[in-house]
Design a protein that fits this description.
about 150 residues, mainly alpha, 2 domains, three-stranded antiparallel beta sheet, 5 strands, about 40% helix, flat
């Protein structure tokens, strides 16, 4: 687990601000108190809620208004949990070639190239199966057969 993943986990709400009760995860960044029913949001929930109210907004504004650090917003964009809308003034960059992306780490062209390189590297490690495999005897568990014979089953 990376440092940023740990940071995201550490920022999750655990206890209700209203009554101190334990929170349980519902969905999409929303947690609910098992005692009083109050809702709390993790970083993703805060961003999602903000975008539902304010519409598409630049990451620095989202960060400032929600208190979610820019690096966490970037992680959500990189792993596809958030997307930059089509026609935006700002996009994130492909980590390899630098072209504009709405979400993810690599553009389609770089992804294909990296997949080809990985396939080539794996191909070097591939072994060959024998043309004909010797058939193995069918193995049985004899213990149960003997027990069943003794008990008359």
């Amino acid at each position: 687990m990376t440092d940023i993943d740990m940071k995201i986990m550490d920022r999750r709400p655990m206890y209700c601000k209203e009554c101190g009760g334990k929170l349980f995860y519902q969905n999409s960044g929303i947690y609910q108190c098992e005692d009083c029913g109050a809702e709390e949001y993790d970083d993703f929930g805060k961003i999602k809620n903000y975008l539902e109210i304010h519409g598409p907004s630049p990451a620095p504004y989202i960060s400032e208004d929600t208190g979610v650090p820019l690096e966490i917003i970037s992680v959500f964009l990189r792993n596809g949990r958030l997307e930059i809308p089509e026609g935006s003034k700002y996009y994130i960059k492909c980590e390899r070639c630098g072209c504009a992306l709405r979400y993810g780490r690599y553009c389609p062209a770089c992804t294909r190239e990296l997949a080809g390189q990985l396939q080539g590297a794996l191909f070097e490690q591939m072994g060959e199966k024998p043309k004909q495999e010797v058939e193995k005897k069918k193995e049985k568990m004899h213990f149960l057969d003997n027990v069943n014979k003794r008990t008359g089953r």
